[in-house]
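Q: Got a minute? One more chain.
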Amino acid sequence: MNQFIQRDETGKKQENYLTPAELVTFLNDAKQNENITNYTFLLVIAYTGMRYGEACGLQWKNINFKEHTITIERSRDYGGTHKPKTLNSYRTILVEEAVMKQLETYKKWCKQKLLTYGLKLMDEDEYENDDTFVFISHLSGEPIGPNNTAKIMYKIIQRTRLPKITLHGLRHTHCTILLNRGLNVKVIAERLGNTPKMIYEIYGHVLKEMEEASVAAFSQSLNEVGAKSGASS
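A: Always. Here it is, folded:
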């Protein structure tokens, strides 16, 4: 089943995620109106489902352009750099080619920006040792922090009038889209750095709606066949 489960439209409860169409609108606005750091940051989170602290903690040695993978091995927040949230959070995930191309474009920009501050990234053949943080301020060249990210979300939501979500809502969006596409829960859990149990606990309402929809779809399929064969009541 690949139909996206819609959020409740009563207004009583607003889920912290976007539909696929809303996500496209969100990213298009970010691309058109935000600086290259903000756009690339949001794109990576939306397409990988990583936590924002994990994205802030990415270093260029974690980006493998040849294999199209990103390795998560640290997190950054107000308190500085830390180990990932759990042991499951240590992971290497496959990333779509379009995202990797944007990261290549962004890396070229970073090289130019850092040079203005007398800094430089390592050569491609030495990338495994490059501990420079990926996402840097377009104003100072310093690694971005949580303060930046909250402001970015607010501006985009204001411009697009999309449902209000937090930055973590992009992670929920990634997971919910995958669930609605029928992907294996274990595979999704590994991608997000969770356990299958956590996926069931956090996204149980989505899985329940999918189960109900699958029952209806199965009955509808049999009824359609029955109608053609004269077996329907």
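A: The first strand starts at residue 63 and ends at 64.
Q: Perfect, thanks.
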